[in-house]
Amino acid sequence: MRVRALAGVVLLTTLTLTGNPATASPARPAPPAPTGLRALADRADLRIGTAVDMAALADDDAYRAAVAREFNTVTAENVMKWEATEPQQGVHDWAAADRLVDFARANRQKVRGHTLVWHNQNPAWVTEEAFTPAQLRAVLRRHIIDEVTHFRGKIWHWDVVNEIFNDDGTWRDSIWLRNLGPGYVADAFRWAHQADPKVKLFLNDYNNEGVNAKSDAYYELVKQLKAQGVPVHGYGVQGHLAVQYGVPADTLTNLRRFEKLGLQTAFTEVDVRMPLPADPIKIQAQAQGFTALLQACLLADRCVSYTLWGFTDRYSWVPGVFDGEGSATPYDENLSPKPAYAALRDTLALAGR
Ligand code: G3I
């Protein structure tokens, strides 16, 4: 938005210096004002994204059209995870992930890579734990180098490590922590950087919006990583909210403290679920949840993107995981926009002025 505003000032100045109102050609009708999220985000100099379900992208024309129309960034909901890319050791399947990268290129969208190291959705051959710690470290290194190399130059951000802390700020138990100790995080960032020195490398988690034990753990970790010269560039806040829990009031304060450490910030998986059935108050609270995070991003200095974890209830992961909850996205099952969509649109429109 600042860049756009400045560009506007320069243009005006040029016109003032060189334009001659008496001889200027008649004014053309102004182009129609942008209305979709993508056009408004472009004008506000913000990346707005969605997680993409590759089956839906292939089969559902309305879904595919909306991904292209409404977003300037995409994230693979599942197909860049390790279980998808290397189902058997040494046998890679990049096909689905490549299709997303091709779609993004055709539609001039950036790609957030999700995710290199996680406790979940690893291939069975990894989690059977038949490896010694030294072998497991070599296997993890190979995976990171292979995947980042495969997509070198095509990915904007990588979520390098995902969900490494518990909510109380202790390290989450995982095959990586058990076998390699916490040093696996620094290793993962170094290996990713080695494979693609230009890509921005992110930490990513949920329940880390505000200042709390989990975000404190990240804050201390980032200080340590920076002191060791580890290439870490971004703090990803997933933003899985629920109307019954509200939005942490210190979200902006939290983003700012990470930005002061030299990181970019991003909302990476925003949705706002609710206990079903929906009612007008829940629907209003949902719209406020989406816009509260968007406002924090727009008010922060280095918040570079805002990604929805799916934009339609037709394919949302929420009902499958939270019993009795759902309606978590800005479009309903029929791909009709809800008040949350209008709220996001109105906020972006204000930001681009
Ligand atoms: O791939 C299998 C397929 O072979 C099988 O036929 C089918 C039958 O259920 O399951 C498929 O696996 C599913 C997978 O998504 C791929 O579609 C799993 O059951 C399902 O549990 C899995 O869920 C994903 C979940 O991560 C796994 O933890 C969700 O789609 C995805 O939205 C979700 O995303 C995570 C982020 O990566 C990290 N942050 C939290 C977020 C929400 O949980």
From TrEMBL:
Spans through the membrane? none
* Keyword annotations: Carbohydrate metabolism, Glycosidase, Hydrolase, Polysaccharide degradation, Signal, Xylan degradation
Q: Name one Pfam family in it.
A: Glyco_hydro_10
Task: State the EC number(s).
Answer: 3.2.1.8
Among its keywords, does the record have Signal? yes
Q: Which SUPFAM superfamilies would you find in this protein's record?
A: (Trans)glycosidases
| Keyword Hydrolase attached | yes
What this protein catalyses is: Endohydrolysis of (1->4)-beta-D-xylosidic linkages in xylans
The residue range of the signal peptide is: 1-24
Q: Which InterPro entries match?
A: GH, GH10, GH10_dom
Enzyme kind, highest EC tier: hydrolase
Q: GH10 domain: from which residue to which, for each copy?
A: 40-347
GO molecular function term, any single one: endo-1,4-beta-xylanase activity
An example GO BP is:
xylan catabolic process
Q: Which family does it belong to?
A: Belongs to the glycosyl hydrolase 10 (cellulase F) family.
Record protein name field:
Beta-xylanase
Native source species? Actinoplanes auranticolor
Q: What is the lineage of its organism?
A: Bacteria, Bacillati, Actinomycetota, Actinomycetes, Micromonosporales
